[in-house]
Design brief:
323 residues; alpha/beta; six-stranded parallel sheet; six-stranded antiparallel sheet; 10 helices; 14 strands; 35% helix; elongated
Length: 323
């Protein structure tokens, strides 16, 4: 996949450009339907599939307190590439871009710079100053200026509307199985392992890898989770506590993860943590011994959940192989 982070780097319009545009936060199943459609239409036309998005998310500029993002920009890039898109254009968003009219954006960016011949958007998409460029506007522009427009309907998965807003609500509520249904994968947090207070191994008998979580980011419901930990291309089981560790009176929001069957020095190294299931909320224990006993119980439950997940994957693999 070709990646452009500045429109000036696009020297000439793309031939037979089939385009989708959006914020694509989370790259959920609804977004993936858009990408599938653009890729299919581009291949049929022997053209190029192009996704256009913005960084930062427009609401981070216009109303920073109104949104917590599901995915980071690197995650978004990985997931869009995985969808088979040929070209990803990330437009830096600022106040100047925010006041661009919808018609100017169509003329100057989509047509003149990108060379768009075909556009696929979601049912609720709108662009330009004041979000005046809704789907009806885009269809009128297409009729006037010679590009086709396909509007994708709302997508539901097992009765749930797939939307970034709904996924944020579910993450905040700790409903990770519902989150997975809408994302098509487990919700993931990422970060570099930080130095902690060294209590996990020495005091409790369960060493942990600690990732700091910003209060500004989308934070899952506090408590203990069954997790999958990805390090150096390998996957391990684990349990993670997301919160403030009230037993010891800590004040920093941290994800502390005990990784099963793992013994390596990973301070400063990047980890990816998939959240499978919320087990319980944070509890203030009487002391280290009571906390250790509860961690043992959490690990026992987590291992059962992880075994069930491995079994589901094995069954799915065999079904796909026999299809």
């Amino acid at each position: 996949m070709e990646l452009y982070t500045d429109l000036k780097d696009i020297r000439s319009p793309f031939p037979q450009a089939h385009v989708t545009i959006g914020n694509f936060d989370g790259v959920h199943l609804g977004h993936q339907k858009l990408f599938d459609q653009v890729v299919a239409r581009a291949r049929q036309d022997r053209g190029i599939s192009i996704a256009i998005t913005f960084d930062p998310h427009p609401l981070k500029v216009l109303n920073p307190q109104s949104i917590r993002l599901i995915s980071t920009t690197p995650q978004k890039i990985e997931l869009i590439e995985r969808a088979g898109i040929d070209v990803l254009v990330i437009i830096p968003f600022n106040r100047e871009v925010a006041v661009t009219t919808a018609e100017d954006f169509v003329d100057e960016v989509l047509l003149a710079r990108i060379g768009m011949r075909d556009l696929v958007v979601g049912y609720d998409y709108a662009m330009g100053k004041g979000r005046q460029g809704d789907t009806a506007f885009l269809q009128r522009q297409g009729a006037e200026k010679g590009f086709s427009v396909m509007v994708m309907p709302a997508y539901f998965e097992q009765g749930l509307l797939v939307s970034s807003t709904r996924i944020r609500e579910l993450v905040a509520a700790g409903k990770m199985r519902d989150v997975k249904r809408l994302l098509g994968r487990f919700y993931q947090i990422r970060g570099d392992v930080q130095w902690g207070r060294q209590r996990g191994g020495k005091l409790l008998g369960f060493p942990t890898a600690n990732l700091c979580i910003s209060e500004e980011d989308l934070c899952p419901k506090r408590g203990v989770y069954v997790t999958q930990v990805i390090y150096d291309g390998k996957q391990y089981g684990g349990v993670s506590n997301i919160g403030y560790n009230p037993t010891f009176g800590d004040t920093a929001l941290v994800a502390e993860t005990h990784i099963f069957d793992f013994n390596a020095d990973i301070y400063g190294k990047p980890l990816k943590i998939n959240l499978l299931r919320h087990l319980r909320g944070e509890i203030t224990f009487s002391g280290p011994e009571e906390l250790s006993q509860q961690i043992r119980k959490d690990i026992e439950v987590a291992q059962k959940v992880l075994a069930q997940e491995r079994q589901r994957k094995l069954i799915a693999y065999h079904l796909d192989s026999s299809a």
